[in-house]
């Protein structure tokens, strides 16, 4: 939901490879930057409230790893 803090449980299943999650707005501004950590491991990221909308998420270590986060109204 919009305007509500939320958690991302991120499982890095790539042994010895570092990953993280960054959330960016439409202009590319970083709104959240999660810790980079090697796998195999799990991190729970706590994200501050975001307004309704569509956001990009990316692994900053591997910028070709991207997706879309939709925050509801």
Can you tell me the overall shape?
globular
Note the run of SSEs as H and E.
Answer: EEEEEEEE
Give the radius of gyration. Answer: 12 Å
Number of helices: 0
**Strand line-up of the largest beta sheet:** 4-3-7-8
| Proportion of residues in extended strands | over 45%
Structural class: mainly beta
Overall pLDDT metric: 97
Query: Could you tell me how far the N terminus lies from the C terminus, measured between alpha carbons in angstroms?
Result: 6 Å
> In total, how many beta strands?
8
Low-confidence stretches: none
Largest sheet: 4 strands, antiparallel
Fraction of residues in H or I helices: under 10%
Plain-language structure description:
- This protein is mainly beta.
- Helices cover 0% and strands 51% of the residues.
- The strands form 3 sheets. It has a 4-stranded antiparallel β-sheet with strand order 4-3-7-8, with no helix packed on it. Strands 1-6 form a two-stranded antiparallel ribbon. The protein has a two-stranded antiparallel sheet with strand order 2-5.
- It starts with 5 loop residues before the first strand and ends with a strand.
């Amino acid at each position: 939901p919009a305007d509500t803090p939320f958690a991302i449980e991120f499982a890095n299943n790539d042994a010895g490879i570092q990953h993280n999650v960054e959330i960016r707005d439409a202009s590319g501004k970083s709104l959240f930057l999660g810790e980079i950590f090697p796998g195999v491991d799990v991190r729970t990221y706590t994200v501050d409230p975001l307004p309704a909308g569509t956001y990009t998420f990316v692994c900053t270590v591997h910028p070709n790893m991207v997706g879309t986060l939709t925050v509801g109204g």
